[in-house]
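Hypothesis: this fold can be encoded by more than one sequence.
Test: take the structure tokens below, design a sequence, compare later.
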């Protein structure tokens, strides 16, 4: 079940990224196909000499590429953010067991929840995916075991802080995931958010985890930052828009019990 969960999360990550890439590629391909069409028209469509055949082949390839980007766009359109007002503390509490099982017995998982963290506005599924991805990264950075701390807090971003963090000034809920693992070299931390950047062996890392989290955080009106020290450990901190002083028991909306028609 966990392998399936991880796979579905990977698919979601791929969906979010491919959406952006497919959109840009589609625009470029439209330009390329348009130019090829014009060249073919000017040369005369029936030409079977070298130039005519090269143009026909180029057009066929570009058209196939466009069909592929349309498939990717259709796939990624299913990934939409559905922000809800939720309690970070409640969400973390609800995930503690899954996170502990994910990282295994050699890693001690602790939640440090600020009672005044408040409520935040974001998509609960995406946030759960993000935390799970961060826990998997932390586990991979602690092959000999260690400690994983998930902390919530409330932060007021002053105009100076907001500018430094590339955020609007205002109130935020922060969720941080700290490990006592290998840490990152400056080179790795500089590239960690790049799509497909991974230092993991083939088949183990996709390089999509942190880039997906970056997309999710910024699209939610928030931000994500890494603090890492080589040989000491890493903290990844999510900043999400604060949404009032909900009690920490503010219920997360439950899914409907019956399937909706259609
Ligand atoms: P993946 O985990 O598939 O490699 P990510 O985008 O999640 O993709 O991470 C990119 C890279 O950043 C990782 O390959 C690793 O080198 C580094 N990294 C991420 N999280 C951590 C961490 N907690 N500790 C050390 N390095 C990390």
């Amino acid at each position: 079940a966990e392998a399936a969960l991880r796979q579905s999360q990977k698919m979601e990550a791929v969906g979010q990224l491919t959406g952006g890439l497919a959109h840009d590629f589609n625009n470029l391909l439209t330009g390329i196909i348009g130019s090829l069409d014009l060249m073919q028209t000017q040369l005369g469509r029936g030409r079977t000499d070298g130039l005519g055949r090269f143009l026909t082949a180029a057009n066929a390839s570009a058209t196939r590429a466009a069909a592929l980007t349309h498939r990717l766009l259709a796939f990624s359109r299913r990934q939409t953010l559905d922000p809800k007002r939720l309690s970070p503390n409640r969400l973390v509490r609800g995930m503690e067991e899954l996170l502990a099982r994910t990282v295994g017995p050699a890693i001690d998982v602790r939640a440090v929840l600020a009672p005044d963290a408040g409520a935040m506005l974001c998509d609960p599924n995406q946030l759960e995916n993000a935390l799970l991805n961060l826990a998997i990264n932390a586990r991979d950075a602690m092959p000999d075991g260690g400690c994983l701390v998930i902390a919530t807090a409330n932060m007021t971003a002053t105009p100076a802080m907001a500018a430094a963090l590339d955020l609007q000034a205002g109130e935020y809920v922060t969720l941080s995931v700290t490990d006592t693992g290998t840490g990152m070299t400056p080179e790795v931390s500089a590239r960690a958010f790049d799509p497909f950047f991974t230092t993991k062996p083939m088949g183990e890392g996709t390089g999509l985890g942190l880039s997906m989290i970056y997309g999710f955080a910024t699209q939610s009106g928030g931000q994500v930052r890494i603090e890492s020290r080589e040989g000491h450990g890493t903290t990844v901190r999510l900043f999400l828009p604060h949404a009032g002083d909900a009690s920490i028991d503010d219920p997360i909306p439950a899914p409907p019990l019956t399937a909706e028609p259609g």
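The helical segments are 2-43, 50-76, 88-103, 124-141, 159-165, 186-191, 209-219. The two ends are 28 Å apart (CA to CA).
Hypothesis status: open.
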